[in-house]
Amino acid sequence: MITPILFMLSTSFKEGAEVYSLTIFPEKPTLVNYLFILGESKFIIWTVNSLIIAVLSTFSVLFFDGLVGYTLAKFSFRGREIVFIAILSTLMIPTEMLIIPWYMMSRTFGWLDTYWGIAFPGLMTGFGTFLMRQFFMNLPDELIDAARMDGWSEFAIWLRIAMPLVIPALSALAIFHFLGNWTAFIWPLIVTNDPDLYTIPVGIASFNGEFQSDWEIVMTASCLATIPTLFVFIFLQKFIIKGIMLAGLKG
Amino acid sequence: MSTVSLIQLNKNFKEISAVSDFDMFIEDKEFVVLVGPSGCGKSTTLRMIAGLEDITSGTVKIDDRIINNVHPKDRDIAMVFQNYALYPHMNVFKNISFGLRARKYPKNEIELKTRKAAEILDLTELLERLPGELSGGQKQRVAMGRAIVREPKLFLFDEPLSNLDAKLRHKMRAEMKKLHQKVQTTTIYVTHDQIEAMTLADRIVIMRSGVIEQIGTPYEVYHEPANHFVAGFIGTPTMNFIDCELEKTQPGLHCQLSGGSSFQLDHFQLNEEIGPSREMYIGIRPEDLIHVTSKRENLISIDAQLEVVEPLGAETLLICKGDFGEITGKSNQARGLQWGESIEFEINPDRIHFFDKKTRKRLRRII
Ligand SMILES: Nc1ncnc2c1ncn2[C@@H]1O[C@H](COP(=O)(O)OP(=O)(O)OP(=O)(O)O)[C@@H](O)[C@H]1O
Ligand SMILES: [Mg+2]
Fold first, then answer.
1. Mutate which of A77, A145, A149, A245 to test chain B, going by most B C-beta atoms within 10 A?
2. Which residue of chain A comes nearest to B134, CA vs CA?
3. Which of B176, B206, B233 is the last residue of a domain?
4. If you measure from the C-alpha of residue B190 to the centroid of ligand 2, how many angstroms do you get, rounded to a whole number?
5. How far apart are CA B24 and CA A106, in angstroms?
6. Are the CB atoms for A167 and A216 separated by under 8 Å?
7. 3-state secondary structure at position B136
8. How far is the CA of B39 from the centre of ligand 2 (A)?
9. Which domain, by its residues, includes A132?
10. A52-77 confidence digits (pLDDT tens)
11. ipTM score here?
């Protein structure tokens, strides 16, 4: 499992000619690839693009999936089951099938080559809504009632009581969504033409020319691209552990 | 400081009627206790007043304001829940002050009020703790603190002591009473523990299957129960019931117990005409069945065979079997009683309750 990652790392320190020799340690380690990526390519811009989109869409997912999941779990209203089933059924549709409708939508509304165009399919997810609903179902109704009696509005209760108590679920969802978004390739590729709007995966793919691939460059970019995901993971993992401790205290 | 009017309150869950025609006026500063067996609609009534449950029909008023459609947050009512419902992610201070923060009190006032409530409830040392780090009794006090800190118009308690062990429950019961004497807020308190009801209440509401069976002071529900159900529900050990047939005689009533025993009640008349005879239950509380050792003249008494002796310390319960069924009586003498021994119990005719067998209503003695 770790071998491809080691090769990725080692290749990033190799020079062009050496790429196809399968040694782990480069004979002449070099930083030219890194200098190229960081200096001459648009990698920094792509990173910024990726970060903006992944962070915004992760927050959006936490907010909307949390809100809808809570509503489905804790309010009874007519049509609740139907809404829930409708959301669940979106999980059964593969992304590939949605790309054409998304594209047509984006063209109609002028979203091609915009951040919004790249991000909109991921602003809310059926999976996250389902996950949050399941967690909120376990939240005791008495807590919500107590907060109502304490004088808080329904939205404030969601924000101040319900959401903090499902932080482990939110963290897990955030990790999944962030990573999924960070590595998303097909849709950003389709919706963007302007290299200034590429996300990292699309940008990296663009190093693969039609006739020739600069693997050492691709690998270097990939190495750099994993760094933010590591940070996100380390940062959010703390919340998962803390949340589990809190869950143990409940009741 | 408020009055509460509950007018023809009804609650149906789909077809099931959980509360029907609940009618009551609660005075300012009154402590009202709802009791009844599990599932009789106590919590549902409380939750309708709180606004946590929609009202199927009827009216809830606080003072003169109808609050049927007011969101719970705007009713100015505080509620303590059975499982305390403390916010697990907030420390004690934040739990108590959470309601004040909702009402946008200035910061120093929140601090002041919260510390004062904590002091009243002896929680000052625990303010930084999370609910998970508290014992049951401490959690219970935090839940109380959350209610009193806001100085609401009305307190609602839903079985607040039922998760505590017997000793702590006893202690908190006394605390509860002291607290009410101190803050004097109108209170509605739900319990299925009738001792709690008797000790705390100004008035008790006894419910069964969503219907009010009786509203009265502890004295009234104990000594003048409205019907067979109330008589059996209030008091431990429970009232003894014996099937009997009442016959009118001159000058009084003849009471023929099932099984053969009988006694005569002279100069005795009930508030309803009983005709030549009428099927009844008589009810006698165990403390009104006194074990007599020496025979006296003109004594109204019944006989039974001793089955179980339960010494309670101050007094002794005698569980006996007569030809009319099982009865529980009391004795001041714990020793020297033999299994199977014939026991004679004296009955004070004023302490006999008569219940009509069909309507189950109590008849009163008028002469
Ligand atoms: N959400 C609900 N949906 C359907 N039926 C309900 C609901 N809540 C309560 N009931 C029914 O209403 C009746 C009264 O319930 P309630 O909770 O008020 O009883 P209770 O007197 O508080 O009992 P307990 O002492 O067990 O708490 C019960 O028969 C119960 O099954
Ligand atoms: Mg209840």
1. A149
2. A249
3. B233
4. 8
5. 63
6. no
7. helix
8. 7
9. 56-199+228-247
10. 999 999 999 999 999 999 999 999 99
11. 0.85
